[in-house]
Design brief:
The complex is a heterodimer of chains A (191) and B (186).
Chain A (H helix, E strand, L loop, with lengths): L1 H17 L6 E6 L4 E6 L3 E9 L3 E12 L2 E9 L7 H13 L3 E10 L6 E9 L6 E9 L2 E9 L10 H6 L14 E2 L7
Chain B lengths: L1 H17 L6 E6 L4 E6 L3 E9 L3 E12 L2 E9 L7 H13 L3 E10 L2 E9 L6 E9 L2 E9 L10 H6 L14 E2 L6
Parallel strand pairs in B: 1-10
Antiparallel strand pairs in B: 1-2, 3-4, 4-5, 5-9, 6-7, 7-8, 8-9
The chains are: A alpha+beta (191), B alpha+beta (186).
Chain lengths: 191, 186
């Protein structure tokens, strides 16, 4: 009996050791842009571009990490001069995210309570050609369009993973809610 | 055979007479507010109230029609003093509309370069079914809502969709003989 127990423990230990190590989730904060979020893996900052019929051509700030074949991405676009158009700019971004894709979830998103509420949208889509499943959350606040996208790639295959939901739901705009010790994100400068 | 045909014609004519006459749809336009829509029935202009946690308390301007036990409303909420929160104010209005109700449809609305939302809900206590469309343009929430009341009972009527889809923000797209909406009462 004792030998069987030892063998069972050894089996479990070997199985755990064989599993890929999961990266720790960390909190990240950008005080200048006014938000924080949580993500696993090493978050890297870069700049990119976006174009919408209403938004026009825009430079973007991107914070991205990849962990266990899930890509986590926060994209920030500034519309300081067009804040009054925020509703339509946000709607366009949400529409583009799901356009021509299979929509699995499309629901209200609300961050912060009461008068501090920021309303947005959470959408889950299957990418064309079996390229994975993407969960997005979209907000427009203080002149900035902030998108969180987590994409489970086919190499991961666990399309029901709770990690994309954990990522997009971690967004905070009231920074007192952010975990103490959050990693400070720098804001990359546009060229 | 002739008698049967005659009887059928008479019954058909009687049935048609018994159906309540649907009011003609007319185009309406507000140049100052920058939108136009179409609706049946007699126009009434009212003032109302709206409250949201973010929006706070607001007066509303309501253009209201009732025809065949369907209520058609175009509600205008001025939020120009908080226009920088446009996206959240629109989201809050949409959220409040459906909160605690059975949602049958929740989809994108897209008209004349404006993105909004269209929702259909069943009202609590069998009080009817409502379809609404929400947009925020020029510092105003434009909210069109058609509610089929239980006395009508045809909850699949296309009239609700016809009303909310008639909105246009390019006034040149309004009907040529559209009636100018009256200025709001003081």
């Amino acid at each position: 009996m004792c030998r069987w127990t030892i063998a069972a423990f050894a089996g479990v230990a070997i199985t755990i050791a064989a599993m890929p190590a999961r990266a720790e989730w960390k909190s990240y904060i950008n005080r200048e842009l006014g938000f924080s979020f949580m993500a696993p893996g090493e978050v890297k900052a870069s700049v990119g571009t976006f174009r919408g019929a209403i938004a026009g051509p825009r430079q973007t700030i991107v914070y991205r990490s990849v962990e266990d074949n899930i890509e986590y991405k926060v994209t920030v676009m500034s519309f300081i001069q067009a804040q009054a158009e925020g509703a339509t700019i946000l709607g366009e971004r949400e529409y583009m995210f799901q356009d021509k894709k299979k929509v699995l979830v499309d629901t209200f998103a609300r961050v912060e309570p009461g008068k501090d509420s920021v309303y947005g949208r959470k959408i889950v889509v299957d990418l064309p050609d079996n390229k994975g499943r993407s969960t997005g959350a979209f907000y427009f606040t203080k002149g900035r369009l902030i998108s969180l996208e987590a994409t489970v790639l086919p190499a991961n295959g666990d399309f029901a993973s709770p990690d994309p939901g954990r990522f997009v739901d971690s967004i905070a705009f009231v920074l007192s809610r952010t975990e103490p010790g959050a990693v400070e994100l720098e804001t990359p400068k546009f060229e | 055979m002739r008698l049967t045909a005659l009887a059928a014609l008479v019954v058909g004519a009687l049935t048609t007479t018994a159906v309540p006459a649907a009011a003609a749809w007319r185009g309406y336009i507000s140049h100052p507010l920058g939108f136009a829509f179409a609706a049946p029935g007699k126009l009434e202009v009212e003032k109302g109230n709206y409250r949201g946690a973010v929006a706070g308390p607001r007066d509303t301007l309501v253009y209201r029609f009732v025809d065949d036990n369907i209520e058609f409303k175009a509600v205008v909420i001025d939020v120009s003093d908080k226009a920088n929160d446009a996206a959240t104010l629109l989201g809050e209005a949409e959220y409040n509309f459906q909160e605690g109700k059975k949602v049958l449809m929740d989809t994108f609305g897209r008209v004349d370069r404006q993105y909004g939302r269209k929702l259909t809900i069943d009202l609590p206590n069998n009080a009817g079914r409502a379809t609404a469309a929400f947009y925020l343009i020029n510092g105003r929430i434009i909210w069109l809502q058609a509610t089929v009341l239980p006395a009508n009972g045809d909850y699949d009527t296309p009239e609700m969709g016809r009303f909310v889809d008639s909105i246009t923000f390019f006034t040149v797209r309004a009907e040529d003989d559209a009636i100018e909406l009256p200025v709001p009462p003081k």
